[in-house]
Specification:
The chain is an alpha+beta fold. It has one domain (3-81): Ribosomal Protein S8, Chain: A, domain 1, CATH 3.30.1370. The protein is 38% helix and 21% strand. The protein is built from three helices and four strands; from the N terminus they run E-H-E-H-H-E-E. The protein has helices spanning 15-32, 47-56, 59-62, and strands at 3-7, 36-40, 67-70, 78-81. It has a four-stranded mixed β-sheet with strand order 1-2-4-3, covered by helices on one side. The two termini are 14 Å apart.
Amino acid sequence: MGRLKLDLHPIARQGDRIDAELERVIREAVDKRIPMVEIIPGKGSGQLKKRVLRFLQRKDIKSQYHRVEKDKDNSGRVFVHFRH
């Protein structure tokens, strides 16, 4: 399995579930040693993407991944790379 994908569109208006789903997908990638997670906050106003990027900057989360890449062709996607 090369990547996990998390589409936040279905839960975009459920603030409490967003962080829970982000934590779940990061934990799953670490546990299963998956090299990349694709997070889709969508384009919209950019608020959801900002929230995702703030979440990824948390000290406890940042220590689990190698780097974050914003998709240069699609501003509504973020890739989180892991080095296991």
